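Please fill in the sequence for the structure shown.

STRUCTURE ENCODING:
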């Protein structure tokens, strides 16, 4: 009888050992991104959990297209442990495919029940409407315009979309400027801007440039085109003599041919938490507010252009505004399709600076 009991016990232990196995649970197994513009990079996070009772080993992750990729730091999970994997899908040229489109990312592991576990990313990819633009297009053309004059002079009148950093404070605010983008600096005449560019370039801002002649040089070329005036300001040009240097200089005509203006429709607290440098926070809750605001926008003249980017959190209101602007003649007005959320999905917090 004892031998029989030991045999039964031994068989039970063996059976228990045989039953022990890892079990990979993935959430989500299907990610539907809805509708995306052609060229948008879809990025989402998948949770991987070992719900079994022995160690899970992820041997590899495969995908059926170079348009997809992943990031996975942890490949060994003990029972009950979890990790995350980031999956990306570049939708470039997928608007020409049958819709909806889908791609697979397959996880290979030692889970005996599902040694190959597919994750599906799917959705509709379409082309841009004339009034829509992708995060990639905004990132490609973006620059920062810095007004180095005093806060008082800036408040009286400044170039549209300029950020005010008085020259004496520039060293303390270098962290608010991107090193990867062109930075145009101006003062009244161009003298202080030349010195400021030298400071920036010494600190690895290799794309910093002086607006030749400063505001006075701009005025001589274009008057108060693309100027923002205080309501009570006397609209007169700056005084002094414009300085036209030869080092790291951009002419007013070069800036005027590709002038940009970013309008942020999000709430003031959301805007303050992180926005594009120089973006103006505007509330357009009603049609009347939109019409009145649009009527005050400057119109480009021959030889100049004005690219207006309208942004919100998800692109819903911004695209309606951009469509309206195109309808009244602002042919380069665009919304950021997918909004700031789409920007963050592709570029993270790059170029999104908190209000200072």
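FILLED IN BY: designer on duty
SEQUENCE:
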């Amino acid at each position: 009888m004892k031998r029989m009991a030991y045999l039964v016990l031994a068989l039970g232990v063996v059976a228990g050992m045989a039953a022990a196995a890892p079990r990979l649970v993935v959430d989500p197994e299907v990610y539907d991104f809805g509708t995306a513009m052609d060229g948008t990079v879809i990025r989402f996070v998948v949770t991987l959990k070992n719900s079994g009772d022995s160690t899970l080993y992820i041997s590899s992750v495969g995908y059926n297209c170079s348009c997809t990729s992943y990031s996975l730091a942890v490949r060994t999970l003990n029972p009950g442990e979890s990790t995350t994997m980031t999956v990306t899908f570049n939708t470039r040229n997928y608007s020409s495919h049958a819709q909806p489109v889908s791609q697979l990312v397959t996880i290979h592991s030692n889970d005996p029940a599902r040694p190959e576990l597919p994750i599906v990313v799917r959705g509709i990819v379409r082309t841009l409407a004339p009034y829509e633009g992708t995060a990639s297009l905004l990132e490609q053309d973006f620059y920062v315009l810095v007004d180095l004059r005093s806060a008082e002079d800036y408040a009286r009148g400044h170039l549209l979309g300029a950020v005010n950093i008085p020259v004496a404070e520039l060293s303390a605010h270098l962290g608010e400027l991107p090193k990867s983008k062109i930075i145009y600096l101006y003062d009244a005449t161009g003298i202080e801007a030349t010195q400021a560019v030298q400071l920036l370039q010494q600190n690895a801002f290799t794309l910093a440039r002086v607006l030749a002649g400063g505001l006075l040089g701009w005025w001589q070329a274009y008057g108060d085109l693309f100027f923002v005036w205080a309501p009570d300001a006397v609209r007169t040009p700056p005084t002094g003599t414009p300085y036209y240097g030869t080092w790291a200089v951009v002419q007013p005509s070069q800036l005027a041919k590709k002038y940009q203006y970013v309008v942020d429709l999000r709430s003031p607290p959301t805007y303050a938490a992180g926005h594009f440098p120089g973006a103006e926070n505007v509330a357009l809750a009603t049609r009347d507010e939109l019409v009145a605001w649009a009527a005050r926008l400057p119109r480009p003249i021959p030889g100049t252009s004005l690219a207006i980017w309208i942004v919100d959190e998800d692109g819903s209101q911004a695209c309606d505004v951009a469509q309206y602007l195109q309808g009244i003649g602002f042919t380069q007005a665009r919304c950021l399709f997918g909004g700031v959320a789409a920007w963050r999905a592709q570029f993270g917090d790059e170029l999104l600076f908190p209000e200072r």
